[in-house]
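ok, trying the design again with the full structure, not the truncated one.
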């Protein structure tokens, strides 16, 4: 396992990010004061159950959440620049977080946001999705897609140049007949091949950060592993940073330098993989995920399996959002009450490792 080896320069930092949606059911707090960080050259896994806010946080970074009916608030600092700068002038969330202000000027918000994200989306930050075929345009060849992405980096390119760059990138993502694939349309590719092509499209702009949102869940296990190894080696070759989104914590153990765990829109734990996997100083939720992933059935410690379901996105529980499912809080009656009442803050348990659980409150 690779250690968190002193990548100290922060490339992306997400601070107190809130992305809320007005819906028929009420206010959905998809991302609720989430904070995490991606250092230069690091591979970070963002982990959580379905609905925990992983995709919405990534789409917020990419500027792909529209203000209406959503509201994005907080800080997303990329290469030292806050991508949400000055948006508060157009819409805000009340400081108590209970009420949400109506967007005052939707057009103004969009204009400002577009200018903040210009030159970043697709160029400095690339993204790949779970289903590559549907995120590529069916009317364009693979070479067209790669050429367009390279154009973001190099300006106007001729058809011939675009084709050459496409072949070069298809080679880099280890596609065996790159010329044929360059001429192909997305629907003509197998799942694994389409995912490689999508990676080539994202990387042809030579971004600093690649966000990969569950890019392997639709693939069979062997192809999944190949794609992961490919991403890992490209990351090392290109000194790229990767934010890899998954619900599978076991991916973290082999590939990630650090891990951030999301629960009910929050990041309840983040830290270097080795420290998080030590299991004696992690969040009860993370530990439950690890317990299930490692299939430790022999010690028969049933308490460690997470019971119940994640909270409804409109009605979050009071206090620690995990408390209704946490076995630990019933064991510690005093602390249990506190868990129901008061939301834990980020408590430092190790170098660069923070856990939102009262269990780690100093002096406890
Ligand atoms: N445009 C939207 N409008 C309203 N609610 C939304 C919107 N997009 C997402 N949500 C809600 O926000 C919450 C977080 O969704 P998100 O897609 O980020 O989850 P996720 O962690 O990526 O889950 P999965 O593992 O299933 O992909 C969910 O409750 C979802 O229903
Ligand atoms: Mg998702």
């Amino acid at each position: 396992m690779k250690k968190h080896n002193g990548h100290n320069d922060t490339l992306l930092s997400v601070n107190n990010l809130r992305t809320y949606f007005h819906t028929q059911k009420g206010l959905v707090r998809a991302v609720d004061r989430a904070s995490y960080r991606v250092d230069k050259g690091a591979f970070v896994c963002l982990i959580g159950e379905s609905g925990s806010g992983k995709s919405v946080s990534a789409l917020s970074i990419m500027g792909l959440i529209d203000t209406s009916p959503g509201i994005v608030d907080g800080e997303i600092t990329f290469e030292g620049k806050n991508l949400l700068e000055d948006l508060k002038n157009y819409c805000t969330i009340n400081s108590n977080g209970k009420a949400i202000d109506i967007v005052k000027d939707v057009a103004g918000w969009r204009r400002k946001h577009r200018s903040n994200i210009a030159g970043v989306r697709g160029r400095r930050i690339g993204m790949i999705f779970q289903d590559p075929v549907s995120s590529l345009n069916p009317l364009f060849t693979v070479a067209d897609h790669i050429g367009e992405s390279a154009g973001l980096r190099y300006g106007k390119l001729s058809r011939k140049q675009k084709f050459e760059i496409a072949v070069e990138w298809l080679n880099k993502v280890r596609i065996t007949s790159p010329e044929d694939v360059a001429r192909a349309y997305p629907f003509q590719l197998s799942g694994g091949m389409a995912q490689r092509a999508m990676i080539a499209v994202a990387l042809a702009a030579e971004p600093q950060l690649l966000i990969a949102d569950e890019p392997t869940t639709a693939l069979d296990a062997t192809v999944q592993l190949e794609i992961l190894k490919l991403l890992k080696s490209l990351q090392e070759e290109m000194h790229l940073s990767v934010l890899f989104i998954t619900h599978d914590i076991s991916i973290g153990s082999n590939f990630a330098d650090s891990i951030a765990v999301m629960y009910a829109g929050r990041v309840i734990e983040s830290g270097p993989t080795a420290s998080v996997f030590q299991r004696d100083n992690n969040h009860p939720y993370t530990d439950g995920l690890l317990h299930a992933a490692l299939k430790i059935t022999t010690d028969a410690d049933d308490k460690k399996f997470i019971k119940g379901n994640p909270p409804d996105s409109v009605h979050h529980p009071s206090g620690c959002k995990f408390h209704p499912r946490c076995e630990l809080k019933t064991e510690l009656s005093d602390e249990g009450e506190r868990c129901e009442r008061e939301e834990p803050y980020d408590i430092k348990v190790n170098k660069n490792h923070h856990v939102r659980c009262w269990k780690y409150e100093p002096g406890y």
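Keeping the full-length input from now on. The first helix runs from residue 54 to 61.
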